[in-house]
Amino acid sequence: MKPVNQDHTAQFYDKAFTWIIEKGPNILIGILALAIGLWLIKVFSRWIKNRLYKKDVDPSVKPFFISLSVAVLRILLVFTVMQFIGIQMTVFAALIGALGVAAGLALSGTLQNFASGVLILMLKPFRVGDNIIAQGQEGTVTDIEIFYTTVTTFDNRTVVVPNGKLSNEVIINISKKGSRRLDIELKFSYGIDYDQLLKLTNETINNSLNILKDKEYRIGISVLEESGYKVMISVWLNSHGFNDAKLIFQERLLRAYKDGGIPLPGITPK
Question: CB neighbours of 241 closer than 8 A, spacing ≥ 6?
Fold first, then answer.
């Protein structure tokens, strides 16, 4: 085994010591700046969040703006720390250029989600608080973030949908208009008197508090068949709480027919 060259070892330690003396303070300053910067960004995030929620700002914009601001500040902080440490930006720029194509391909979906998030906030097909049907899910929009939108379903499941999916596919906003129409089709035999049926239905609608009285409802015979006729009942309900109001109205309608002595051979709700 060859003996270690004492001169080379001494030179190595001398260079390492010199590097620590020259770069050590900058590295310590960089670490300190990173810690302080992250803390200041956290404080700023809380401050801007409180300010936005106190102001009359669109709820859809608030989480998006906060998350975007924090992301930009963190990137700027990293660049600043690199300057403290002494890393040349030209070297860093060359490294970014070399990895740019690969990173662009890897993050193409992420960038698409970002661009889609901006489009959603600009075009406003839905906002925070709207009830939507998207990607086979129905629920309330709770957050619109940079890359994804969070929907809470009516059975309290949290669904995270990438913004790219929402901007390129069909979205049904079921609460934007403020009201929805409920259509119920009922089948009766020809032995049931239609006038009595019409009277009971009108009374049930007028006595139901969940039915919107400022919109005209409709009752009529939709189909004539050999075994009987079908009656279509169309009423208007508030978009929010639609399902609850639907259940209550159908129960009242069923009780009204039962108390009035009208049998129901078949019910086809829509």
Answer: 210
Burial class of residue 9 (count of CB atoms within 10 Å of its CB; 0-12, 13-18, 19+): exposed
- The alpha carbon of 177 is separated from its chain's Cα centroid by a whole number of angstroms, namely 19
- Rounded to two decimals, the pTM is 0.58
CB atoms within 10 A of CB 206: 10
| pLDDT tens column, 78-128 | 777 777 676 665 555 555 565 554 445 444 566 777 778 778 877 888 888
| Tokens at 245, concatenated | 């109001």
Nearest-angstrom CA–CA distance, 159 and 150? 6
> Within a 13 Å sphere around the CA of 64, how many CA atoms are in the beta-carbon half?
26
Tokens standing for residue 27: 């590295």
- 32 Cβ contact list (under 8 Å, min separation 6): none
Render pLDDT for 55-70 as a digit per residue (tens, 0 to 9): 666 665 667 677 777 7
Radius of gyration of the chain (CA): 33
What the chain holds in terms of domains, given with CATH numbers, is: 9-106 (1.10.287), 116-173 (2.30.30.60), 179-269 (3.30.70.100)
Phi and psi at 59, nearest 5°, equal -55, -25
Backbone CA torsion sign across 128, 129, 130, 132: positive
Question: How many angstroms separate the CA atoms of 85 and 31, rounded?
Answer: 9
Q: Please give the backbone phi and psi of residue 124, each rounded to the nearest 5 degrees, phi first.
A: 55, 55
Q: Determine the distance from the C-alpha atom of residue 155 to the mean position of all C-alpha atoms in its chain, rounded to a whole number.
A: 16
